[in-house]
Structure formats: C-alpha cells, structure tokens
Amino acid sequence: SSELTQPPSVSVSPGQTARITCSGGALPQQFANWYRHKPGQAPVLLIYKHTERPSGVPERFSGSTSGPTVTLTISGVQAEDEADYYCQSGDSSGIHVIFGGGTKLTVL
Amino acid sequence: QLQLQESGPGLVKPSETLSLSCSVSGVASISRSTYAWGWIRQPPGKGLEWIGTIYYSGSTYYNPSLKSRVTISTDTSNNQISLTVNSLTAADTAVYYCARVREDDVVQVADTGAFDYWGQGTPVTVSS
Strand B70-75 and strand B60-62: pairing? Predict the structure, then answer.
C-alpha cells in the first residue's frame, strides 16, 4: 500500500489523553515518525522509529505500535497542543516517503 | 544550530518552471556522508506531500506522482539544495519546505528516515 490512514480529527478536553492512529503503507515493518504542524510554522518531529522521542520533546508525547497500527499518544493535553499531526513512513519499497493525511487535534 | 531557509519567486505562471533554493547554515558542508535532504510541500487546505530526497552521494528519490517533472540537486560550494518543478499547473500551488533526514537514519539506511530539521517554508502560487 502507498497510503497512510489517519482520522481527520480528534477532540479532547485539557488534561485528558489524545490518541491518534495511523495505519497502512508498510507499517509496522517500515518505521513510523510523527510531526506536529501549526499554521505558519515549520513541522516539528515528535516521535521517530515508532517510539523514540527527540531531545527537547516533552515526555507526554509517546509512540506505540500494535499490529499494523501505530499510535501517537499525548498525555495531559494542553491548549498549545492544538495543531495538525502527521504520521510519516515509507512505502513497501522502502524508498519512497509517504505522509498520512493528517489529524486535526482540537482542545475543547 | 542547523538552520534551513527556503527562497523562491512566490508567483509563477502555468506551464513554466519553478526553481526553489534551500540555504543551509550551521554545518560545514551539506555533502557530509551522514546527510540527506528532502523537499516536502503542502497545498492550501491539504496535508503534507513528499516531493523527493537527495543523499550525500548524489542519489535522488522522487515521489512517483511527480518524478517526471521534478529535479533535486545540491550546490555544495554554497551549501544549498535546489528544487525545480516544470510544467507547472495550479495544483502545484503550495508552501514548499526543505528538511534534513536524521543523520542516524542516513547512516543506518534502514528506511526512508525522519525529517528532524525543517525550514519555515516558502509559498508558491501558480497563476496567470
């Protein structure tokens, strides 16, 4: 498959936990990476290789895998977390990069 | 601190060729053997779309849907990465980003890698 599927939107109240799923492509054999993207800003890498967190990214951001689905979990959601979130991986060839369609996180 | 800055014409006409540049600062040379650079774009109201990636060796990989119209190259003397897109249509209107592939991902050659540094993006409108 050459597509990654994400839910278009997720809504949570402040302090709750948000979970954003991603499936398709060559997951989980190909690594999944997650980005946060706010309007007018550059995307920010949150998670790489399914579960690894770059230095400087808060611990409340975590990644996991279960079967063919990978999940970005945001614990203790804050108003500042409202943004679009994208998963990224490779297709079955391992050469071409693919992005999920993005998930808009709304903090109620 | 590594920084990337895209630049381009802003407005181009349909059927013409778009040329964008990405200037990299904070590194001695963009051709270091642990480096790879990508271009990604975001059309208005849509998601991120990978355009292509160039590795330190000069090897390039392109989105199959764009491959026939796209070229990525490097100017190592000026630490710049270039993108050209020809035969433009309105569908090429987007914010264009350049980004770096994580060094460890380049070294391990395990998969396509993650993009850890991004430019702020440059908007491009294709219109007559």
Answer: unpaired
